Amino acid sequence: MLKLKYLTHGVDCMGINFHDRRNKDSYTTRKADQTWKETMERLVRPATRKHAVDIGCGGGIYTKALADLGVSSVTGVDFSEAMLTGAREKIGADRRLTLQKGSAQDTGLEDGCSDMVLQRALIHHMKDLHPCFLEARRLLREGGVVIVQDRTPEDCFLPGSEEHIRGYLFSLFPRLVDQEVNRRHRSERVVHELEATGFQQVSVHRLWETRHRYPSKERLFEDLRARNGRSILHELSNDEMEELIRHLEMELPEGEIVEKDRWTIWQAVVRE
Fold first, then answer.
1. How far is it, in rounded angstroms, from Cα 56 to Cα 80?
2. What is the pLDDT, as a whole number, of residue 13?
3. Rounded CA gap, 148 and 122, in Å?
4. Considering only the top CATH level, what class is 7-269?
5. N or C: which end of the chain has fewer CB within 10 A?
């Protein structure tokens, strides 16, 4: 399998080409999990927010979820027209939602236009966190909140299990470990960069978020082969993918598979 790597606007896209229309549906195949929704309710009370911006919205899963949680209007921003095409096809006609092309450093939106910014699964693509945090702060009114959700190295390297499928990748393919360490930011650095950008009341939270419920191992394997929603899988050759699946066939039980990912969430507020 040909692996293409891109560095655009400071974004390290790993082995997936986010601009290839063949990948437009890669991040549209899931729904936001109830545990994530409950966490957002607790942290930001979405129903009290008039406008949110979802930066790096991909397939629009969480753009729509914010609106469903009660945010009056949500703008999803992504640097890939292919991803936005997939999002538009998935979301359909929803007047609460707007999708537009822009980067994490330059969304093209007005100063102070929002009272919530979400950056989910974004910062591991960024070499320098300061510009994307500065853009988030520019968009927020006083009292606005930013939610940054991503995985630290500690989140990624938890052992593989029936729930934590991702962990098997690193035990089977050790070459991915250094790559993952290089693209994942430690929590202390994220906190420092948020504070250096001018955010206040920075807090850190952990979340085990259900990724998907598969009725059988076979359905999981179909999803893995399609490399849906997991940029790291584009680092594997087809032969390596089959090696992973053979290993999972032995490790996982029969019946329903409830896959989860461990995330870290950083919350911060704009105060004048």
1. 9
2. 41
3. 8
4. alpha beta
5. C
